[in-house]
Design goal:
Elements lengths: L9 H11 L6 H4 L10 E5 L14 H6 L7 E3 L5 E3 L2 E7 L2 E6 L13 H12 L13 E6 L2 E6 L6 H4 L28 E7 L3 E6 L12 E6 L3 H10 L4 E2 L4 H4 L7 E14 L9 H10 L2 H8 L4 E3 L9 H6 L16 E7 L5 H14 L3 E7 L5 H5 L5 E7 L8 H8 L13 H12 L4 H17 L2 E13 L3 E2 L16 E2 L1
Parallel strand pairs: 1-10, 1-11, 14-15, 14-16
Antiparallel strand pairs: 2-3, 4-5, 5-7, 6-7, 8-9, 9-10, 11-17, 12-16, 12-17, 13-17, 18-19
Helix pairs in contact: 1-6, 13-14, 14-15
Amino acid sequence: MRLPARLLPLTAATTASLLLTGCFSAASDTDGSSKGESRRIRVAMMQPPRSGLSPLSDDAFKLSRWSTAETLVKLDEDGDAEPALATEWKQSGRDWTFTVRDGVTFHDGTDLTAEAVVNSLTRAATASPKPRILDGVDMTVKADGDKVTVTTAEEDPLVPQRLSSPQLAILAAKAYKGKTVNPVGAGTGPFELTEVNGTSSATLDRYDDYWGGEAKAPGIDVRFVPDGTARAAALRSGEADIVEAVPVSQAAVLDQDLITEVPMPRTNTLYLNTEKGVFKDASLRAAAREAIDTKSLVDGVYEGRADVAEGLLGPALPWATGLREPAGGRAKAGDPAGRTVTIGTFTDRAELPEVAATLQQQLQQAGFKVKLEIREYANIESDALAGRFDAFILSRATVLDSGDPAAYLYSDFASEGSFNISQLADPAVDEALEKASSAPTGDARRRAIIEAEAAVLATDAAVPMLHERVVQGDAAGVADAAHDPRERELVTIDTRVR
């Protein structure tokens, strides 16, 4: 069991700090100070690049968080599309036409044109494998003057939201010369990626010809620090200005003025197998739901740094709470009568084994007998998807790449869903999910999504327990760092070190 944060030995933090000593260049401390402006921003990030910073992979989110690669569209707080490299767009059936912003240059000095947009989007649409946001989407792109037309095989109301994904960033032609996509010197953002040192570091300099104005910081120095204790120590010692993903166990021993907690669109959920076994009985699913004390999970395992779940969609989607009504139509709780259930989860997220142990105690107190099976995620996912557990604990992103939760709800709870751990096949749920998936964006779609959530909750196929938060560390001199629940922004044009 993990030691409480207040009991962690200080020597561990001190040792971790030594791992970072000298890892940021001397220029980080001095650049710009003689001019009275911000110095370079030192960032400690959790995960090193997995695919050489190719935007066609999850590395795209790093490029976005460093404000070096941009997309045609960005999302507002509610997940609605706003202009970025495209200034406007309109739909006509399966066609969406986007007007490309004038006066934008790539970091290599070439102009942003409709042809450059087509080049980037076509490379993404024909990639193998495709970026996740285009999974199952047949998309073609063509240029006409300063406009780009995106055509999908079926009418798709989410095209603008899809094009907001960092995996569909628009890069200069030079990025696509080789077999892999190389983003160095090829973006359009306020910071130019100038150097990448494998999985250890990256360097970005201010791009003076940025179309949106001049960045307040002269550059960014990034170090990849997978060890959470080391990242926290870097903030404590002053080795880093911005630290992403501070572990819950470390947050309590840091200066709380340096910590910001942001609700994530990620829900910790207990999926119950509705197809076979004990939880095929709706009354026993209800008994499990009633046995779970979610507040004790938040207070005990997450040390108060999470939010008790009222539904599948949490506070990172602020519109959900205002539309949600009390859940109804659920079965009454039955008697577990000592029936044995097996709960699976994985070790990759440090808190989940502790969640499993706590649930084991709570369900046993309610009359179930509970076995736990805990492995690495890569070794347990296939069994979970095949329905080999009575229940499975999963920390699940609820908006995926489009900023829209309908795709998550469909994949997890539709009869044909690709991630249907609950093995749910419910006609009422399927109907609600189809309605949500096809609804136009805006208020109508949000209402349909909440109706679909209610339909899922009525089955007790999933028990939402808590919504996770991202814990970010900002040194005392940092101003205007982004605190983004979708983790698309971190250092922006306005971020600086005072």
